[in-house]
Design a protein that fits this description.
198 residues, alpha+beta, eight-stranded mixed sheet, two-stranded antiparallel ribbon, 24% helix
């Protein structure tokens, strides 16, 4: 069994856990994945099995992706998702209506600059940013130019917003959740994420 496959990753295990499971199932040691999904995320994980397939994963990473994301407003999180320590947004909060939310979403479509989360796998002098953050060290990551092709408001009932996002490579949906909350002046973090297409 060699080639490139779409595997469904449930919420809970890391992307690396999924690779370990596949190694045990297939007996193949050369297995890799394209585009990490956080433990709290679920959905399509592109996997290469065998030498030839793993070499092609660099091309798969660059492809368009689609996500369904749920954002909770009124609080922020140090990790920009459900996992981190929360802080309640300063009161009083002016709760935005659906039209205001839709207007703000439009600002994030196109080529935008995005600050990756401090708790991410990006390396700083060879060490993952999340490892430094967990030690209480200040993490400074550079803004990145990313492309968001489409954001569709799927459901909104304060404090929860559900959106469908179509984007290019390198987009952090956690960062998008944080930035939408900041732009609306209510704070926000990612509570659920499913990658529905690569």
């Amino acid at each position: 069994m060699q080639g490139i496959f779409a595997v469904y990753k449930p919420k809970g295990p890391t992307s690396h856990d999924m690779i370990d499971r596949l190694r045990r199932l297939t007996g193949e040691k050369r297995i890799g994945h394209a585009g990490t999904l956080d433990p709290l995320a679920s959905g399509v994980l592109v996997v290469g099995v065998g030498r030839e397939a793993t070499r092609k994963l660099a091309f798969e990473v660059k492809k368009e992706k689609e996500y369904v994301a749920e954002i909770k407003f009124g609080e922020t999180s140090v990790t920009d998702d459900e996992e981190g320590e929360k802080t309640v947004w300063p009161q009083p909060i002016n709760i935005p209506d659906k039209n205001s939310v839709e207007e703000i979403l439009q600002l994030f479509i196109g080529e935008i600059k995005q600050m990756p989360p401090a708790y991410s796998a990006l390396k700083i002098k060879g060490t993952s940013a999340y490892k430094l953050s967990r030690k209480g060290l200040e993490v400074k990551l550079a803004e990145r130019q990313v492309v968001i092709k489409q954001i569709e408001l799927f459901d909104y009932s304060w404090p929860l917003l559900k959106i469908i996002v179509v984007c290019g490579p390198g987009v952090y949906i956690r960062s998008l959740a944080r930035d939408i909350g900041a732009k609306l002046n209510v704070g926000g973090y990612l509570t659920a994420l499913e990658r529905t297409r690569v």
